[in-house]
Amino acid sequence: MIRTAITDQAINAAALLEEVTSDATGATTLFLGTVRDVNDGRAVTGIEYSAYTAMAAEELQRIAEEASLRFDGLRIAVEHRVGTLALRDVSVAIAVAHARRAPALETSRFIIEALKQRVPIWKREQYVDGDRQWVDPTTQHVSAAAP
Amino acid sequence: MIRTAITDQAINAAALLEEVTSDATGATTLFLGTVRDVNDGRAVTGIEYSAYTAMAAEELQRIAEEASLRFDGLRIAVEHRVGTLALRDVSVAIAVAHARRAPALETSRFIIEALKQRVPIWKREQYVDGDRQWVDPTTQHVSAAAP
Amino acid sequence: MNQLQVLLFASYADAFGASTVTVAVPDPATVADVVGALRSLPGGDVLPEAPLVAVDRRYTRGPVAVHAGQEIAVIPPVAGG
Amino acid sequence: MNQLQVLLFASYADAFGASTVTVAVPDPATVADVVGALRSLPGGDVLPEAPLVAVDRRYTRGPVAVHAGQEIAVIPPVAGG
Questions:
Q1: How many other C-beta atoms lie within 10 A of the C-beta of residue D51?
Q2: Are residues D61 and D24 in contact, defined by beta-carbon separation less than 8 angstroms?
Q3: Omega within 30 of 0 (cis) for the link into D28
Q4: Residue B116 has what DSSP assignment?
Q5: Distance from D23 to chain B by nearest Cα, in Å?
Q6: A41-70 per-position pLDDT tens digit
């Protein structure tokens, strides 16, 4: 099974775990991305995630389908949230289950790496001083945003 | 932080996630081992986990401490359950959080691989036909158990 | 010349001051023509040498032809996860 | 000779019919002496050539000395997870 979604609702990690685990699976992995309090040395109060929603949904689904070709019997559920998130809020959840651990663990890693490279989602960090900046991973630091 | 336990209670995966996630973490991983319905071609109805409890607790803690030396700022919680488990029951949960995903993902993998090699826990599978056998991973199939 | 609508997001939308812009390009046109036309607009200097362009919600590579009716988007460096 | 208690688990406990057995070994004794004494007991043929032995809840390697008062355990192939 594969299910992927871009959502503006809070992500229910426990529900994703439940969704992928079956009688035939022996290993379930969950990866959660959460908002943390410091990035690039600046105190972060929240992150605003935006997406090219139609393409993000399609690209995320393509990634999960590519991942599913690598091992038989994978069960995959992925959600990425958009909107304004506070500290500790879950931005992305990747749940993968398989009969054995190696396919589950490797698929989880495959999906998060591909997601970060390919899915058209952006984040603007909000700082303690009220400033906001778009994060540009290609430069390994944040780039100045328009006011 | 590090917390490890051998427990005879049901594992609360959501509580472990909560426990390791902090304002400073951006990636949380969870690995769950669950009882599955087929092993080595035989229909399994449950698994009885037993342990050399005192040593299992110490060895599990040593593994988590070794893992914690590999990256700064890891937060680790691991529980392994013993007793008789039914299909889908969680036998082991490994929750790891870190500021960044690579340390979290790699630590999760490190811990499950070391746990499977070193922690003195055994499982006896119960089959549909009423038979029970101890699982011996070193022979890649189950070995005959005493009646 | 042909008028094409282009979708912009995040830092690019901020730089151009719009989430959709219309550019005039030769007919037939390529992705490079679209990027060249964008670059000449106010805010166009935000674009790197070879920005990512998606057509109909798929990334393009190389000299891909584009035409009216397609969904054309210029994609800033992604930062999901 | 010295009497030492040895802890057994899982398939080994089943084979020996007990979770603790007492073996007589030379004084001083090594882990190999303990394994040798176990092998001569009923059920002892369950043991592989070099079973894992833990002393005071740590795995041993090589010719480690053991003495009364230590917690000695022979460990079947583990299968946690």
A1: 17
A2: no
A3: yes
A4: H
A5: 20
A6: 899 999 999 999 999 999 999 999 999 999
CA–CA dist A90, A12 (Å, integer):
9
CB atoms within 10 A of CB C26: 11
Contacts of C81 in chain A (CB under 8 A): 33, 80, 91-92, 112, 115-116, 121
Best CA proximity match to A5, nearest among A46, A47, A61: A61
CA distance B60 to B5: 8
Q: Are strands A27-34 and B27-34 parallel, antiparallel or unpaired?
A: antiparallel
Name the DSSP letter for residue D61: -
Q: Do B116 and D81 touch (CB under 8 A)?
A: yes
- Counting beta carbons within 10 angstroms of the beta carbon of residue C78, is it exposed (0 to 12), middle (13 to 18) or buried (19 or more)? buried
Q: From the centroid of its chain, how far is CA D59?
A: 11
Closest Cβ opposite residue C80 in set A119, A136, A138: A119
Q: Which helix (H) or strand (E) covers residue C53, if one does? A: strand C52-55
What percentage of chain A carries pLDDT values higher than 90?
A: 90
Distance CA D44, CA D50 (A): 13
Q: What is the ipTM of this complex?
A: 0.94
Q: How far apart are CA C36 and CA D59, in angstroms?
A: 68
Residue D43 to residue D41: CA distance in whole angstroms: 6
Contacts of residue A34 in chain B, CB cutoff 8 Å?
Answer: 21, 25-28
Residues of B within 8 A of D54 (CB-CB) are 52, 55, 120
Chain C interface, mutation test: which of A52, A63, A82, A143, most C Cβ atoms within 10 Å?
A: A52
Residue C37 scores a pLDDT above 50: yes
Category of C62 on φ-ψ map: left (φ > 0), alpha (ψ -120 to 50) or beta: left
Neighbouring CB atoms inside 10 A of A68's CB total 18
Q: What is the pLDDT of residue B140?
A: 57
Half-sphere exposure of residue C40: CA atoms within 13 angstroms, side-chain side: 9
User: What digits encode the pLDDT tens for the residues B15-59?
Assistant: 999 999 999 999 999 999 999 999 888 999 999 999 999 999 999
B92: its two tokens: 């082991």
